[in-house]
Amino acid sequence: MCKNHQDNRQSAASQDMSIIGWREIVALPQLNIDKIKAKIDTGARSSAIHAFNIQEFAENGLQMVSFQVQPLQRSDRTTLSTQAQLLEYREVKNSGGTVELRPVIRTEIALRGQKWTIDLTLTNRELMGFRMLLGREAVRNKFLVDPGKSYLQSDRKDNNN
């Protein structure tokens, strides 16, 4: 395929995709999280959320995981308890370059009327700037990312952090 034809196909596909900023406010309805600020990180393959008190258990023959989330950045005043089916454990290289074995869940994410399913790793992000990281697998073929803009698909006033 010639380069111009390939560029035209990519351009046509990208015209159908919304543009998001490097940070957006998203919801995780199946986890009862109405809003959480997420950093969009195309350098990271997987998505992660700050989770603690992670407990694995069985329910109706399924492996489940319960955990707590503090969705407000730099705040521990709101703690939500939730649970989801455990998909698997994955080795993920953290920002410090250390490989961690993390529990993975599959859940629905919502942003400006769009909903789709993502894999989400559970890890301690207490010292990180964002309680949630949305990696490239979660936004691939759905959005284009403008790294110079924020909250293009969400209203920052909607979030208390």
Q: What is the CATH topology assignment?
A: Cathepsin D, subunit A, domain 1
Rg, alpha carbons: 17 Å
- Taken together, the total number of domains comes to 1
- How many E-type strands? 11
Query: How many helical elements?
Result: 2
Strand order of the largest sheet: 2-3-10-4-9-8-7-6-5
Bulk shape: globular
Which residues sit in consecutive blocks of at least 5 with pLDDT less than 50?
none
| Assigned CATH class | Mainly Beta
In short:
By secondary structure, the chain is mainly beta. It has one domain (18-156): Acid Proteases (Cathepsin D, subunit A, domain 1). It has helices at 3-15, 136-139; strands at residues 18-21, 23-28, 33-41, 47-50, 52-59, 62-69, 80-93, 99-111, 114-123, 132-135, 143-146.
Note down, in words, how this protein is organized.
This protein is mostly beta strands and 161 residues long. It has one domain (18-156): Cathepsin D, subunit A, domain 1, CATH 2.40.70. The protein contains two helices and eleven strands; from the N terminus they run H-E-E-E-E-E-E-E-E-E-E-H-E. It has helices at 3-15, 136-139, and strands spanning 18-21, 23-28, 33-41, 47-50, 52-59, 62-69, 80-93, 99-111, 114-123, 132-135, 143-146. The chain has a nine-stranded mixed β-sheet. The chain has a two-stranded parallel ribbon with strand order 1-11.
What is the element layout, followed by pairings?
Layout: H1 3-15, E1 18-21, E2 23-28, E3 33-41, E4 47-50, E5 52-59, E6 62-69, E7 80-93, E8 99-111, E9 114-123, E10 132-135, H2 136-139, E11 143-146
Parallel strand pairs: 1-11, 3-10, 4-9
Antiparallel strand pairs: 2-3, 4-10, 5-6, 6-7, 7-8, 8-9
